[in-house]
Amino acid sequence: MLATLSPQPADALLALIKLHNADPRPTKIDLGVGVYRTGAGDTPVFGAIKAAERVLLETQSSKAYLGPEGDMGFVHALIPYVFGADFDRSRVEGMQAPGGTGGVRLAVEVAARAGAKRIIMGTPSWPNHAQIVAAVGLELKTFKHTTAEGTADLEALRAALADAAPGDVVLLHGCCHNPTGVDYTNAQWDQIASMVQGAGVLPLLDLAYQGLGEGMEADAYGLRKVLAAVPEALVAYSCDKNFGLYRDRVGAFYAVTGDADALANAMANGATLARASWSMPPDHGAAAVRIILGDAALTAQWIEELAQMRGRMAEVRGRLAAAQQIGPINMAPLGHQKGLFSMLPLSGEQIMALRERHGVYMAGSGRINIAGLTTDNLETFIEALRDIAG
Ligand code: LMR
């Protein structure tokens, strides 16, 4: 039977990690997978996480199973950060998931069980979104995320929603759009909230980079606007970036509805799906987040560490934007885009030339990880871009 299997392409983003590691050139630059790096090129464990891990080591008395929903202390501690301090707690419940991917997978599967047939999504998007939708067996309807001017295309979303049918879900990136870095403005979110409500579709908000754009509160603006307007919604959340816990896989899935039975059933279905997929999510990282959010000093330390990350990314963006024009590439918009990513309009040949001639590794879409640019390699990267596009 195994001989009937067809070969599969390696995941393009994850393959870049190995390709970069295998490159012997000391000047190589990794702008691939979305991992934050300091100006020196490191991805250190947050100080707040190290402190929480010490507490965990001292106080954890058992590693016995918790259940398919994971650490509910963690799930509930995040609620004020995601939904707002005065959100009506009776409308929301959640469960832990292995990373943002686990959160998206649960959300799409629960939507499918609730009768969803189709996901409406702006493209380009994180490639795993389409892959998860296909794996769950739903149809995908796409619309353009950005305009020719490089702003978020509200009219394309409006047209997609005008065409929506019962059973449709609209997937929206809460902030720090992956891969473009082009977020909806607050004024656009105000309109999106009523558009989504008017279309009667189920919103699925994916918030994987909260705090990496403008701050924890500001980055939740769109999500909160939409949730205030609609009767029900799903949320996929990741702590992998904003707590730097990548390989510990820390995420969550939330359902929002005023119907108490529907909320309980959304969670019961999520728990059944989790049990059949991974049984229980990994505990360690989520426990560390719970410890941080339950301690004012550790919370302040984490918020400060997040602010430092944003400050560094703003500095890199400023330096990229200052390059202004590289051949046909207008660099100025990178200065005000948000989060870890931006996209450069490069051809496949140019992306390969960057890799082969200059050891610069980026996604085939032209997406670059802003944080991969360090104090030392930023000018080298700009020179490499001038070489292939200038
Ligand atoms: C990315 O897009 O690089 C990150 O979200 C990591 C991942 O899992 O793809």
Explained architecture:
This protein has 390 residues and is of the alpha/beta class. It has two domains: 11-45 and 311-389, Aspartate Aminotransferase, domain 1 (Alpha-Beta Complex); 65-294, Type I PLP-dependent aspartate aminotransferase-like (Major domain) (Aspartate Aminotransferase, domain 2). 44% of the residues lie in helices and 15% in strands. The chain has helices at residues 12-22, 47-59, 72-83, 99-113, 127-136, 154-162, 186-199, 221-229, 260-277, 284-293, 296-322, 348-358, 378-389; strands at 29-30, 92-97, 118-123, 139-144, 168-173, 202-207, 232-238, 251-257, 325-326, 329-330, 341-343, 360-361, 367-369. Helix 7 (186-199) links the parallel strand 5 and strand 6 (202-207). It is globular. The structure holds (2S)-2-hydroxybutanedioic acid. (2S)-2-hydroxybutanedioic acid is lined by residues 13, 33-34, 126, 128, 178.
Which key features would you list for this structure?
about 400 residues; alpha/beta; Aspartate Aminotransferase, domain 1; Aspartate Aminotransferase, domain 2; 2 domains; seven-stranded mixed sheet; two-stranded parallel ribbon; about 45% helix; binds (2S)-2-hydroxybutanedioic acid
